[in-house]
Amino acid sequence: xxxxKRLLVVTAVLAxxxxxxxxxxxDYRGKGYKGSVSITDQFGVWVGAETSxxxxxxRHNYLGVGVGGFIFPNSSHPTFMNAFLDYHxxxxxxxxxxxxxxxxxxxxxFNYEGLSGVKFKNAVVIEPSLGWSWGLKSGNGLTLGLGAxxxxxxxxSRTDKKVLPMPKLSFGFEF
Length: 175
Description:
With 175 residues, the protein is mainly beta. The protein is built from one helix and eight strands; from the N terminus they run H-E-E-E-E-E-E-E-E.
């Protein structure tokens, strides 16, 4: 099975599980364990999926850990996997609110070949984001966000560029 098909299967399974998952409350912004699953598009370069699981400390602050996988439909481009810490600040107490986010972690390429112009195998990733969260009657939520993933290559595979910015659009389901 090709990697893109595997990622699609994993994404579908995560989506089904998340729709059936129950957090500690019926409100995705209530205190306790919470999670999310997102589909992402790094503007035509990589598409992928992410999941994050953590704790809502109050109606405004979420801190979690997550993983994501990103593919390019052309096999000459590497496939990346990210692991990250994930912080969100919901700016209003209302069910529909702007959200500020910050992810920080690492990125690794599983099939790095250096053929695509992407000249690093490992990187530190910092991703600030701004988005909107809509609360649903079911107690879950939907998010739409725009971020800027900043890849800073490390190790032997360093490039001439110290920071590689990549705009990112994401659509997620929160539970």
